[in-house]
């Protein structure tokens, strides 16, 4: 993915040194359990010289555990069926493989639409993806609220319409949603530069950052010894 030169934000050395990994999960939501992933896609973007390039991508189906079967509602939304997922690798395999794409010492930020969903899925799988689970997030929703005040809502479909980005044929599949979320993210960064509203990576994180749960210190009880 190539992009045109932008402005002050992309002149920031910290911004240029960061790999932005757009990530999306499709999940099933079993009663009494947290959401379980059934598909993941990730798209890595870098802007080392002021122009955007694609640095890698990954997508995989994930076999859900027995307590989290794919429901008719899940199939209606994603098109994924229980039979299709029965032969997929499990979460340990998929998240472990994704984790190995994160180079030790590399500088990364995850990017997601409503990042709380992705943050929870990753945190719940942290034993399989220790590196990934410590990567902080940028959430496109607060970024869009900051840069484009006054929209009726900030759902992905609304942002696609605002930026005249075509709806993907496979909307609600992880690989398709990652692609359009990346387009929204780049449009938002372009808007930030056009208006000179965000001067550097620190300003971007202040507006849209979300700390990974594994990076949040655990508070001890008042009377713990």
Structure in words:
The protein has 225 residues and is an alpha/beta fold. The chain is built from ten helices and six strands. The protein has a six-stranded mixed β-sheet, with helices on both faces.
Task: Give a quick summary of the entry.
It contains ten helices and six strands, in the order ααβββαααβαβααααβ. By secondary structure, the chain is of the alpha/beta class. It has a six-stranded mixed β-sheet with strand order 3-2-1-4-5-6, sandwiched between helices.
Write a concise keyword list for the protein shown above:
225 residues, 6 strands, alpha/beta
Enumerate how many helices there are, as a single number: 10
Would you tell me the overall average pLDDT? 93
Instruction: Identify the overall geometry.
Output: globular
Structural class: alpha/beta
- The gyration radius over C-alpha positions equals 18 Å
């Amino acid at each position: 993915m190539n992009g045109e030169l932008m402005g002050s934000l992309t002149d920031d050395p910290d911004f240029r040194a960061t790999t932005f990994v757009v990530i999306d999960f499709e999940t099933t939501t079993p009663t009494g359990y947290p959401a379980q992933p059934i598909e993941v896609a990730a798209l890595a973007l870098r802007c080392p010289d002021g122009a955007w390039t694609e640095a890698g991508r990954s997508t995989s189906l994930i076999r859900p555990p027995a307590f989290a079967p794919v429901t008719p509602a899940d199939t209606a939304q994603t098109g994924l069926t229980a039979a299709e997922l029965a032969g997929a690798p499990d979460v340990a395999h998929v998240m472990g493989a994704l984790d190995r794409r994160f180079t030790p010492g590399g500088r990364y930020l995850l990017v997601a639409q409503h990042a709380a969903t992705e943050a929870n899925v990753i945190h719940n799988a942290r034993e399989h993806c220790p590196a990934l689970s410590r990567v902080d997030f940028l959430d496109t929703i607060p970024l869009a609220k900051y840069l484009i005040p006054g929209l009726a809502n900030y759902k992905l479909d609304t942002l696609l319409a605002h930026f005249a980005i075509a709806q993907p044929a496979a909307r609600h599949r992880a690989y398709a949603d990652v692609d359009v979320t990346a387009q929204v993210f780049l449009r938002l960064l372009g808007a930030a530069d056009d208006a000179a509203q965000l001067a550097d990576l620190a300003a971007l994180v202040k507006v849209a950052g979300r700390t990974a749960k594994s990076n949040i210190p655990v508070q001890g009880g008042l009377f713990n010894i």
